[in-house]
Amino acid sequence: MTIDEAKAAARKAAFAARKEAFARGQGQAAELLADVLAPYRGKALAGYMAMRTEIDPTAAMAAHPGPVGVPVILGAGQALKFREWSPGCAMVAGEFGALIPAEGAWVEPEVVIVPLVGFDARGYRLGYGGGFYDRTLAGLRARHPVLAVGFAFAAQELPEVPIDQYDQRLDVIVTEAGIRHFG
């Protein structure tokens, strides 16, 4: 089995687990995420606008005292950029239907809340397959320290995420079941 086939099989299992977890609700996950973000007050934060069955970080993003950005896909094979977001700002549909601010300054984050399909006990994440977050984290980390915070349902944990040389490890994972630090 190739790495791409292994990742596709893992994605299928993780999507099914996430759908079931989403139906049960996210409990206190956003409050736990806000606790993890608290020491980074004033630092630039990147979050995301939840789609479909993703766990929703917007309550923690709205509570963050500092600039907050959400991802904008510029094109295939490119790193993400983050446009400044605030609760109630005008939003438009971006690539893949994700909402993005209609206008605003670009934000270079020091903390990134990372959406994911699955994760493992080593701190690796399985994304959607476009490489956007791995590329983005690698670029940001080459310029300055960046805290990568995975946000997911506990049910999305996989026995082992198939990885290659491009996969970026998370520093923290926050789920409704608790907070785990890596590395």
From TrEMBL:
User: In terms of domain of life, where is this protein from?
Assistant: Bacteria
Q: Which residues bind substrate?
A: M49, E54
Q: Does the keyword Repeat apply?
A: no
GO biological process assignments = folic acid-containing compound biosynthetic process; tetrahydrofolate interconversion
Q: What is its EC number?
A: 6.3.3.2
Q: What does it catalyze?
A: (6S)-5-formyl-5,6,7,8-tetrahydrofolate + ATP = (6R)-5,10-methenyltetrahydrofolate + ADP + phosphate
What is an example of a GO molecular function annotated in this UniProt entry? 5-formyltetrahydrofolate cyclo-ligase activity
Alphabetized, the UniProt keywords read: ATP-binding, Ligase, Magnesium, Metal-binding, Nucleotide-binding
- For whether the record's keyword set contains 4Fe-4S, the answer is no
Q: InterPro entries per the record?
A: FTHF_cligase, FTHF_cligase-like_sf, NagB/RpiA_transferase-like
* One Pfam family, short name: 5-FTHF_cyc-lig
**Residues where ATP binds:** K7, A8, A9, A10, R11, R125, L126, G127, Y128, G129, G130, G131, F132, Y133
Provide the cofactor list for this protein: Mg(2+)
The family line of this record is: Belongs to the 5-formyltetrahydrofolate cyclo-ligase family.
Q: What is this protein called?
A: 5-formyltetrahydrofolate cyclo-ligase
- Recorded source organism is Paragemmobacter kunshanensis
